[in-house]
Specification:
Blueprint: H1 5-38, H2 42-63, H3 74-101, H4 104-111, H5 114-126, H6 132-150, H7 157-184, H8 188-217, H9 227-252, H10 257-279, H11 285-324, H12 333-341, H13 345-351, H14 359-371
């Protein structure tokens, strides 16, 4: 079936946005790794990114006319928002420690294990059960990361543990953001600003105590480069990090969750490829094979998870359809009719991000936004 002119324009727009997203993310990671190679202060890099979220997000939120308030009590703020802000800081910090200690390609291969942590924490903390196909899709991720780890020529245990800690914290934040969105009705970009700003001010004393004192007495910080160049890289990294959050949010609102998940996994491939091309860290054929297997597992997980969610929604809709229409009782007509309308619910999930009790649309948006870092 041929596409209309409007559909062709939307497709071209999506492709351009994805390419922009991949380019920004790849450059952001390369800049961060380059900076950390001679500026070993991951805490400072994390604070700059949180400050960038604080500075750049507010004007965008005003342009989008996203309301600045929500139904949030002080006790809820302390018991939920403060822990989420703490998690935001720790996830960003450990992510930077990981790319400081190990090659970018390996760090992003380990980050492909996020679905495993999401499934584990969802089962332990929220009692969520997954389908057999979802569990099976986790196997190539584990095997792929294992192969990449065994064959990694620049392996570092601190880098591995930091990457695992980062994705574990991100996974918990993804799960608990669902309840936050549903309880408060806050827009996920507004929540990103709230968490980024709170995390920055909460951990500013921590940065002053540790990094600032070292920066004031260090005389070999830039290793021959100018201080201005270092500051420029810091500012560039912060801006690019904020930009990829914004582009990721835009892509999310144009496509279904499954398409977005595939785009996100493809983005990780582009980051790994860019790191191998520009950073030229040594790799073996087996190492690359492990990376590809892990990424393939992520694609399988995204597809299995989406199909499981779609099947669950259809099962919830079918009893209401048959109960509400007496003409559909007593035969297969109800099932046939439901099969015909079921495709409607696939695009509905991405069109109505504020639907389904706010939980699905908002949590997907927030989770993908914070993971974009």
């Amino acid at each position: 079936m041929s596409l209309t002119l409007a559909e062709k324009k939307e497709f071209v727009k999506l492709v351009c946005l994805c390419l922009l997203w991949y380019a920004i993310s790849s450059v952001n990671n390369v800049v961060g790794k380059t900076l950390l190679n001679y500026f070993p202060y991951p805490n400072t890099l994390s604070m700059v990114q949180l400050l960038s979220i604080t500075v750049y997000s507010e004007p965008i939120l005003r342009c989008l006319r996203i309301r600045p308030h929500s139904d949030m009590s002080w006790s809820y703020y302390v018991s939920v928002i403060v822990p989420l802000a703490t998690g935001k800081f720790l996830a960003v910090l450990f992510s930077h420690i990981s790319i400081w200690k190990v090659p970018l390609s390996y760090a992003h291969t380990v980050k492909a294990m996020m679905p495993i942590f999401t499934v584990i924490f969802g089962r332990v903390l929220l009692g969520e059960r997954q389908t057999f196909s979802v569990y099976c899709s986790l196997i190539p991720i584990v095997v792929g990361v294992g192969i990449a780890t065994i064959t990694e020529l620049s392996f570092d245990i601190i880098g591995l543990l930091s990457a695992l800690t980062s994705i574990a914290v991100y996974s918990v934040m993804q799960l608990f953001s669902k309840k936050t969105m549903k309880d408060t009705g806050i827009h996920h970009l507004r929540l990103l600003l709230v968490l980024g700003r709170l995390a920055f001010f909460m951990f500013l004393p921590f940065w002053v105590m540790f990094d600032l004192r070292k920066l004031m007495v260090a005389d070999d910080l830039v290793r021959g480069d100018s201080v201005f160049f270092t500051l420029m890289l810091l500012a560039t990294d912060g801006f690019l990090n904020w930009m990829q959050n914004l582009v990721a949010f835009t892509v999310l609102h144009l496509v279904t969750p499954l398409t977005y998940a595939v785009c996100n996994a493809t983005k990780r491939v582009s980051v790994i490829s860019a790191s191998l091309l520009f950073m030229r860290n040594p790799v073996t054929v087996t190492n690359v094979a492990g990376m590809l297997l892990a990424i393939a597992g992520v694609f399988m997980y995204n597809k299995a998870k989406y199909e499981a969610n779609l099947r669950r929604r259809q099962e919830a809709i079918l009893p209401m359809v048959t109960k509400g229409n007496p003409l559909l009782h007593g035969g297969t007509m109800g099932i046939d009719w439901a099969d015909k309308i079921s495709p409607v619910y696939q695009p509905l999930h991405h069109v109505n991000h504020h639907g389904h009790g706010h939980a699905n649309g908002y949590s997907n948006g927030f989770a993908r936004t914070v993971m974009a870092a």
